């Protein structure tokens, strides 16, 4: 036995009608960013970000003009055996 859901929840707000599939979707508007939306990262933050993105120490060192030892230092990687 089934009953309409509206009879089970008489105080519920009415359900909004879904737009028909034939109506075109509105064109998305480009996002305009103010100058205040940019953040400057410190060198250590940039090293860590590149590392978490999967770049190797040698790639990070090359792209940031650092030595591999400096990158290892920022990442707290010990190269001593």
- SSE order in H/E notation? HHHH
What class, by secondary structure content?
mainly alpha
Shape: elongated
Question: What is the averaged pLDDT score?
Answer: 79
Give the total of beta strands: 0
Terminal Cα span: 74 Å
Gyration radius, rounded: 27 Å
Give me the number of helical elements: 4
SSE diagram, text form:
Elements: H1 5-8, H2 43-52, H3 57-63, H4 68-74
Properties at a glance:
81 residues; mainly alpha; 4 helices
Give structural notes.
The protein is mainly α and 81 residues long. The protein has a domain at 40-81. 35% of the residues lie in helices and 0% in strands. It is built from four helices and no strands.
Write a short abstract of this structure:
The protein is mostly helical and 81 residues long.
């Amino acid at each position: 036995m089934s009953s309409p859901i509206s009879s089970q929840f008489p105080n519920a707000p009415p359900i909004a009608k879904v737009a028909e599939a034939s109506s075109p979707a509105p064109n998305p508007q480009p996002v305009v960013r103010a100058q205040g939306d940019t953040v400057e990262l410190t060198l250590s933050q940039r090293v860590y970000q590149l590392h978490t993105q999967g770049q190797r120490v040698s790639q990070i060192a090359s792209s940031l003009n650092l030595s591999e030892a400096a990158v290892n230092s920022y990442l707290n990687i010990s190269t001593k055996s």
